[in-house]
Amino acid sequence: MHGSYQRFPADLLLAGRRVVLRLRVRRFTCEDVCCGRRTFVEQVAGLTRRHSQRTERLRSVLAEVGLALAGRAGARLADVFGAKVSRNTVLRLVDALPEPPPQVPRVVGVDEYAMRKGCIYGTVLVDVETRRPVDLLPDREAGTVAAWLAERPGIEVVCRDRAPFFAEGARTGAPTAVQVADRLHLWRNLGEAAERCVSRHRSCLRATFSASEPELAAAPAESGSPWPTGHRFADRTRAKHATVHALLAAGHSRRSIQRQLGMTYGTVQRLADAARPEDLFHGQWQNRRTKLDDFKTHLHDRWAEGCTNAWTLWEEIKEHGYTGGYGAVRAYLQPFRTSPTAPAARPPSPRTVTGWILTHPDTLPEGERLKLKSVVAGCPELDALAGHVRTFGQMLTQLQGDQLPQWIKAVRADDLPSLHAFVNGLERDLAAVTAGLTLPWSSGVVEGHVNRIILWNQLCQAADVIRWLTGSAVWPPLEQRPLQPGVDRLHLDSR
């Protein structure tokens, strides 16, 4: 024995009181001259470890807090139960934890993620039962997926999208496993096929929602007043008169109206005293002739014949001696365009109609339900499409995969080429599609992890830009940066 010394490892609170541990431990010397350690200290089993300032139970509690909350939040929570530590200490304790023993998943989900969209793709594999990521592959090749699956013979179910390389990899690497096509991708593919089918019947939509063409408004009778509707001075006076009388009816005083509208008191008083806006039409413009007066009869006759183009009429009266501008003709003809009939309704877009068809009838608003009813009533093909989509949606939500062959047969009996192409794709992957419509497994949890990876990559790219702008050292290129699902959250918190 070389000697002894005292250690004071920090411990958890006991009944809300701080606990002080004082340990006298022995230091020993090694008699082996070849040993690199000259002295070593004894440890109390279950209580201390080398160079540790905390007991094992406090260390384990801080590590669990770090796993749940990461650095900053974990440090704040540790301060509540009397363990003052920094966020970096919490992260170091988590990083020192041993890696959990890998377990071969029984149900695995596989999907691709983009490290750089259009250039670099990888593959994420998730344990669907525990909803935790298992591994990341550097590419999305069928051979890489097959090799990974071949090393784990305990996999029974593979959840995937409809990508052919994942289907080939699962068939090669795990030939006995059941492949399950994701229901979300099936519904999305059906929606795309339905939209193409609706686009082929645009004429039916126009025919259903077309209304009577607006009738041509009759030309107003000529008036000796120089203040017709459409005249800029007349319209301005009418608007001011209506505004002032509306404020008076609401209980505002004339002084209040003057302040609100920015007018003089005399102007407000004149507008308020006039019963009709026509009573204000007087002054130097009264009964004054214009250049257009001699040609108004011609404009009325041509408008009655159906010529409503102001530019054409202007060109015609110029040949008869009119020397005014085009703007005066257009302003004079503007009131003629007022029509008592409503304009023709614009037909909905194919995407809008597809959304109505894909929405459950019980959740579709009443107005849209009536519009969809009028659409399918005027087009037998769209009526058949809506029926097939609802039947497929019932199979998908109620897991009735055994009815898929009858549904395919019914689709082929109708003249729906876009839906036939969708059915051809189902038949090429019929076993996986049937399993997807029968078994409870899906790739929804995998999509969630893909979104997290994409967010992490975007944060890394933003950090690269910031470090480049500040002149700091640049991180490794994104395609060379390893991703570790178990510690990414900790790296994000520390940075």
Helix content: 40-55%
Structural class label: alpha/beta
Radius of gyration: 40 Å
Q: Please tally the β strands and state the result.
A: 8
Distance between the termini: 46 Å
Task: Characterise the protein shown here.
By secondary structure, the chain is an alpha/beta fold. It is built from 20 helices and eight strands. The strands form two sheets. Strands 6-5-4-7-8 form a five-stranded mixed β-sheet, sandwiched between helices. A three-stranded antiparallel β-sheet has the order 1-2-3, with no helix packed on it. Helix 1 (56-80) packs antiparallel against helix 2, helix 5 crosses helix 13 (350-358) and helix 5 (183-199) packs antiparallel against helix 17 (417-428). The longest helix is centred in the C-terminal third of the chain and has 26 residues, at 444-469. It is flat, with a radius of gyration of 40 Å.
Tags for this entry?
alpha/beta, five-stranded mixed sheet, three-stranded antiparallel sheet, single chain, about 500 residues
At a glance:
This protein is of the alpha/beta class.
What topology does this entry show?
Blueprint: E1 3-7, E2 23-29, E3 39-41, H1 56-80, H2 87-95, E4 107-116, E5 120-127, E6 132-137, H3 142-150, E7 157-160, H4 164-173, E8 178-181, H5 183-199, H6 202-209, H7 232-249, H8 254-261, H9 265-273, H10 296-305, H11 310-319, H12 326-333, H13 350-358, H14 366-377, H15 380-398, H16 404-412, H17 417-428, H18 430-436, H19 444-469, H20 488-494
Parallel strand pairs: 4-7, 7-8
Antiparallel strand pairs: 1-2, 2-3, 4-5, 5-6
